[in-house]
Specification:
9 helices, mainly beta, 6-stranded antiparallel beta sheet, 6-stranded antiparallel beta barrel, 11% helix
């Protein structure tokens, strides 16, 4: 991936470009950057000098990460740039922190880790490296084409697979459902990153003896045709041989048919066949054509036989068969242009009907330039002989190391051995030709990689549907230290994601995460995240929210830190909102759903099957009867939890969502004064409608103006509705409720409290407002406590100091399904 930053932090713009693997690193950068002036280049974390570094001339690999940083004019001083960056960061932080809760399933461009349908190993080019947390069944990504090699006529396929960023514990390595250990001839090797500053993600992974093979699309089982067998010349003539000599002469009438024999003089071979003597005796041998001459229309050949004659023999008008040895006209296969630059060539030759004898194939190769022209002095050839005596299929892999080194090559193949006459038991086919790059070592950034080699069927060039998978348990940091260990806890996953993104842990509210862990237990099933983050377009905030969502949490910005709030039952509201701290602009709205929201009559929660982790699982609840029960709803609210692999966690979420349909019917939009800026998403508040005194909830609100013993003066006259007493709750200086509801009675001077709660106060020179109250008559303590409660779902500060709020009903009954 090539990233170009318009400024050192990328605030004013960043552009990402996929690599073109067929051209050099330099050419890739030039394609997207007109000028390199005032730019800084890093490759995989190392700063490069583009003018001298030889790496600029090589093609990039899939895992190379290059960053070009521009330094725009006008921001050359640290102070000027810092000021601009500060403004931009602040704007981005506000926009992100105020974003509504992100729905589950934000991961897009899923790998097989998340899609859970037709899981297979695929090459997810230009996507994010899988970042797998918790305990998860993983289908690793292919990081290069399959390497195919025949060893002792058995096909072996080697795959390089990226499991995840970082380190983890690997177990249950298998193909589909079959353990690798049960597959004959299969093996694997794991390559892990070496940590830097304690984190494997900051380090690098060194792969050893890496072969990258790139198949030629032009080759697909072409037959390497045998040379034509020359036509025999049948002639009559005279013969003379001397006992004890291997030489003999044949004199025949000269004709054009003899041209092929003449051309073999003085050292070529020809098969000579004739019968002689009274026996008669058959002579059929491959002889050397020592000489030939033509005189008066007669051609005289001198041959040298394999052995001397035992007698002097002469004869005339004998029928001779003279046939040139070797090949006639040949037709090679190719040339084929290999797809990429390489330092080796590999070809696979197959004999599908067996091989009886020896077949020699000549390979010829030469290097070409960018225009496809042959580079002078790079042409080479070599003969490769394949020998067997069987009708069983034979398979061979041949490697070539060109003397010209790395480059782009063309290669062609010619069979120089004629047909052996074995009824097709010598038919050679060119199965595949590969451009091969060999790396003694190859370095990748901070990932765990596995190399798997397995036997394949003879008919396939590789696994068309690869199903290698394994179980992975991620090693992550703790909330209070950089020490790494196995964990499925969502809070530790958040801390790890935050840290490896380059952020100081002080920017994350680990105290809030620790409090959640302390309440339920760090290893509690409801606090797990077993998921894969594999979408390159997902921001850091989206990734963190996806993790938090499985634990029923929302991530939001609290001043200078990011914090987490869990959706669960609460004892007291954090703030009371009434006409004293609402803007009073008249823009508050209330929405009430008399029917089930969106006509949903149930929920369907999709998660990952706990046992297999290879398929989807569902929990379906219906609320048509007024309570959550197992059953399929007609119009269910559908929720995806791709990071959930436990039934208990999925049921925990399903029960909440089902009860939310029943009890969460009211939503409010209002504008509060600056006091509300202390709230966060998920906060519990008591909202008392300033436009409806003693309205549907029966609440009256106001401010405590004075305190005299147990008698207080309220800012608003209370409506006792003919009752002799009522109940009130009060807030303290921090805006939170103080104590339980207090019974109160009418009094000539105001309102008499049965007991004055500690912390009750009035306005003074340091405080603009006194304690505020919520008052009601004819209701119990529990009813007063539950009245007017809402959860903050949206919080957006305004330029005038006000805060726009989105609220939704809070009801303790929504959490009755919590264990």
């Amino acid at each position: 991936m090539l990233t170009i930053l318009n400024d050192p932090a990328g605030i004013t713009g960043r552009h990402r470009h996929a690599w073109d693997l067929s051209i050099s690193l330099q050419a890739n950068i030039e394609r997207h950057l007109a000028s390199g002036a005032d730019c800084e280049l890093t490759l995989n974390g190392d700063r490069l000098d583009p003018l001298t570094d030889q790496r600029m001339d090589r093609p990039p690999s899939l895992f190379d990460i290059a960053t070009v940083v521009r330094r725009p004019a006008g921001f050359e001083t640290a102070g000027a740039y810092f000021y601009y960056a500060l403004i931009a960061v602040a704007a981005v932080a506000v926009a992100v922190s105020m974003a509504p809760n992100i729905a589950a399933g934000t991961a897009r461009k899923d790998s097989s880790n998340n899609s859970l349908t037709a899981q297979t190993n695929v090459a997810r080019a230009y996507q994010a490296i899988p970042d797998v947390y918790g305990y998860r069944r993983v289908w690793p990504d292919l990081i290069q084409p399959s390497t195919v090699e025949y060893i002792d006529h058995i096909k072996y396929v080697t795959e390089w697979l990226c499991v995840s960023r970082g380190r983890g514990t690997l177990s249950a390595i298998q193909y589909a459902e079959t353990p690798i250990s049960d597959i004959a001839g299969a093996s694997f090797e794991v390559f892990e990153p070496v940590p830097v500053d304690g984190y494997p993600e900051f380090g690098s992974t060194t792969l050893e003896d890496v072969l990258e093979t790139f198949a030629s699309d032009e080759v697909n089982g072409q037959e390497i045709v045998a040379p034509e067998t020359p036509t025999a010349a049948v002639v009559k003539g005279s013969f003379s041989a001397t006992s004890g000599s291997a030489s003999f002469t044949i004199s025949v009438v000269d004709s054009a048919r003899l041209s092929g024999i003449k051309a073999l003089s003085p050292s070529g071979l020809a098969r000579v066949t004739f019968t002689y003597g009274d026996g008669p005796t058959l002579f059929d041998n491959l002889c050397t054509v020592a000489s030939s001459s033509v005189t008066g229309g007669t051609c005289t050949f001198t041959f040298t036989a394999p052995a001397a004659w035992s007698a002097t023999v002469t004869g005339s008008l004998i029928d001779f068969t003279l046939q040139p040895s070797g090949s006639g006209p040949t037709s090679g296969v190719g040339p084929f242009t290999l797809p990429v630059r390489a330092d080796r060539i590999r070809f696979n030759t197959v004999f599908l009907r067996g091989l009886k004898g020896s077949v020699t194939i000549r390979a010829q190769w030469w290097q070409i330039d960018g225009a496809g022209a042959t580079i002078s002095g790079t042409t080479q050839s070599a003969d490769y002989t394949f020998t067997a005596d069987t009708l069983d299929q034979r398979f061979y892999t041949t490697d070539i190391t060109p003397a010209s080194g790395s480059g782009r090559y063309r290669v062609q193949f010619t069979r120089i051995t004629p047909e052996l006459g074995g009824e097709g038991a010598d038919v050679a086919k060119l199965e595949e030709v590969f451009a091969v790059r060999h790396n003694a070592v190859k370095v990748l950034p901070g990932v765990t990689v596995i190399r798997v080699t397995t036997k394949a069927t003879n008919e396939a060039t590789g696994f068309s549907d690869r199903k290698f998978n394994l179980r992975w348990l991620r090693h992550v940091r703790t909330l209070d230290s950089d020490a790494l260990s196995e964990s499925r806890n969502f809070g530790r996953a958040l801390a790890h994601i935050w840290t490896i993104a380059g952020n100081p842990i002080s920017g994350l509210d680990t105290a809030a995460l620790s409090a959640i862990n302390a309440e339920f237990g760090e290893n509690a099933p409801r606090l797990r995240f077993d998921g894969s983050l594999d979408d390159s377009d997902a921001s850091l905030g989206e990734r963190m929210q996806l993790v938090a969502n499985t634990a029923r949490c929302v991530v939001w910005r609290d001043g200078l830190r990011w914090t987490v709030t869990r959706d669960q039952a609460r004892a007291y509201p954090e703030l009371q909102l009434d006409y004293r701290n609402l803007s009073g602009s008249g823009d508050s709205t209330i929405s009430y759903a008399a029917h089930l929201p969106a006509s949903n009559d149930g929920v369907e929660v999709e998660f990952v099957d706990e046992a297999s982790q290879s398929k989807k699982a569902y929990i379906r609840l219906s609320v048509a009867s007024g309570a959550p029960v197992d059953g399929v709803a007609r119009n269910a609210k559908k929720i995806r939890l791709p990071g959930c692999t436990t039934y208990a966690q999925a049921m925990d979420r399903a029960q909440l969502e089902a009860r939310r349909l029943i009890y969460q019917r009211v939503s409010v939009a209002d504008t509060a004064l600056a006091e509300a800026s202390t709230l966060g998403l998920g906060a519990l508040v008591r909202w008392i409608d300033p436009n409806d005194f003693a309205g549907d909830d029966g609440l009256q609100a106001g401010e405590v103006l004075s305190i005299s013993g147990s008698v207080i003066t309220t800012s608003e006259p209370l409506d006792w509705k003919g009752q002799e007493s009522g109940r009130a709750v009060f807030i303290g200086a921090d805006g939170r409720q103080i104590g339980a509801p207090v019974r109160c009675y009418p009094h000539a001077a105001g309102v008499r409290l049965e007991a004055v709660p500690a912390g009750l106060y009035v306005a003074d020179s340091t405080r603009q407002l006194g304690s505020r109250y919520a008052f009601g008559v004819g209701i119990t303590d529990a009813e007063l406590q539950a009245a007017g409660l809402y959860t903050v779902t949206e919080l957006r500060p305004g330029a005038d100091g006000t805060v726009s709020l989105g609220l939704t009903t809070y009801d303790d009954r929504m959490y009755e399904g919590d264990e």
